[in-house]
Structures are given as C-alpha cells and as structure tokens.
Design goal:
Length: about 100
C-alpha cells in the first residue's frame, strides 16, 4: 500500500471480517465507527506474519478512537485501538 488513505479527524468503519487465522482487529470493534486520531507509520500486516507469509504486506497503521457507548451501550469514556488500513473503510461505506 502506498500513501495513507485516512487522516486524523476522519470517521472510519471497521471491517466485519472473521478469519480462521490470527487478526489484530478486535471483535468488539468490528463493524463499528470510530475516528482516526493519529497515523502510526507503516508496519507489516500481522495477519500475514502470523501465517508465515514471506514479505507480508506493509500498511499504514492508525490509532482509532471509539466511544465506549458505541461499543458496549454505556460509558462516557473512549477506547483507542491501533488498526491496519485494510481493516478500515470510510464511515459512509457499507461494512465488508
């Protein structure tokens, strides 16, 4: 992947993937909308590294903030999660 697709302040929706292998996309944020807080640089996709794929894809990684009430129905705090770009889509798109 090339240049980062999202910038801080952009609302994103996480994927609904449920792979049979390792993923760094926590179940509690799948299909949820959050806001990009920061770009953390580019890093190898851990899903591919865990499967020992040679030369895993390198992607931008973002810190994304979710309101606790959007994840669990209550709470006034927020939760931040570092997520790879392939887990994300603009919040206006349908979940995949």
């Amino acid at each position: 992947m090339g240049e980062a697709r999202f910038s801080p302040g952009v609302r994103v929706r996480t994927s609904l993937i449920d792979p049979p292998h390792h993923t760094r996309l926590p179940r509690y944020v799948r299909g949820r909308v959050g806001q990009v807080v920061e770009l953390q640089g580019t890093h190898p996709l851990p899903d591919q590294r865990a499967r020992r794929i040679a030369d895993p894809r390198v992607e931008p990684v973002y810190t994304v903030r979710f309101a606790a009430r959007d994840l669990w129905g209550e709470g006034t705090h927020s939760v931040t999660v570092d997520l790879w770009e392939s887990y994300l889509a603009p919040a206006t798109e349908e979940v995949r």
